[in-house]
Every structure is written in structure tokens, then in C-alpha cells.
Design a protein that fits this description.
This protein is α/β, with parallel strands linked by helices and 153 residues long. The protein contains 5 helices and 6 strands; from the N terminus they run βαβαβαβαβαβ. The chain has a 6-stranded mixed sheet with strand order 3-2-1-4-6-5.
């Protein structure tokens, strides 16, 4: 899994948000390979405990998802940044797609198809519109798990 050694995964977590636990379990195959950065606004005992593990960092900054993501990018040690919101849920092929891209020559930005697992009734319509915009204009939405080289970011 050498390809995973080049990734820094940046996860901004809002105060009181526990949804990152599902995401972390889905990232289990990357543990020990990828660097995982939790970008927090205030302390979280559960996340602090994780920081004792190798390659998991906890950083603190100002409130706001964009600020937290930028701080994570600045603190990342690896050459590839993967931005995931705490409530992200990976699909079955997400890691294999990521591996395929990272082992090939690539440039630009990688993003994943958007799908909502809960929320208001119109969320599937929102996802349809976002995914259509992706295909037509190559303009991703913030919840799509951006992957970009740190030097490009």
C-alpha cells in the first residue's frame, strides 16, 4: 500500500460532531500508511485519545470549515491532500479509485461523486444537480472529497 504513504487526509470537525467515527472506521485500511489530521475548533477527548496513534495528528484553529481545512493543509506532511468532511461516508470503491489515480500520472484535482445518505427530502435532487454540473463543467461541490497535490494547493 505504498500509494497511501503519500496522502495526508484532512478532516475538519465541528464542536460536538461525532460523525467522524464512521469515516475513521472506513479509513482503517489506510491507518499506518496515510497521515490523518483532525482539524478541531475545541478539544474532543475521543479525538485527543486517537492522537496517541502513529500518523494521526490533532490540530486546533479558528471556527469555520474552510479555515480548518486550510490549517490542515498547512500542517500536512505528505505530498497529496485528501479533504474529507467529518460526515463523509466512503463508497465501496473509493479507496481503489484513489489507488488507481495515485499510482498513475495525474495532475489537477480528483473528486468523488456526491450522494447524501440522510437529510431533507430534496437532497437526492441536489446530488443529481451537483453530479450533472461535475460532468458538464468539471466544477466540484465541497462535499466531494477533493484530492489535490499539496504543491498545487
Amino acid at each position: 500500500m505504498d500509494w497511501a504513504n503519500q496522502i495526508s487526509i484532512v478532516i475538519p470537525v465541528a464542536p460536538g460532531d461525532e460523525s467522524w467515527k464512521i469515516l475513521l472506521s472506513q479509513l482503517e485500511p489506510l491507518k499506518g500508511h496515510a497521515e490523518i489530521l483532525f482539524s478541531l475548533v475545541e478539544p474532543s477527548a475521543a479525538i485527543e485519545e486517537l492522537s496517541q496513534q502513529k500518523q494521526i495528528k490533532v490540530i486546533y484553529g479558528l471556527k469555520g470549515r474552510a479555515r480548518q481545512m486550510n490549517l490542515g493543509a498547512a500542517q500536512a506532511d505528505r505530498g497529496v491532500l485528501w479533504f474529507l468532511h467529518a460526515d463523509t461516508q466512503l463508497t465501496g470503491n473509493s479507496l481503489s479509485v484513489l489507488e488507481r489515480v495515485l499510482t498513475a500520472r495525474w495532475d489537477g484535482i480528483l473528486f468523488f461523486k456526491l450522494k447524501f445518505f440522510d437529510g431533507p427530502l430534496l437532497m437526492p435532487l441536489t446530488a443529481f444537480g451537483v453530479n450533472l454540473r461535475n460532468r458538464l463543467f468539471k466544477l466540484p461541490f465541497g462535499d466531494q472529497g477533493f484530492v489535490i497535490k499539496k504543491e498545487t494547493f
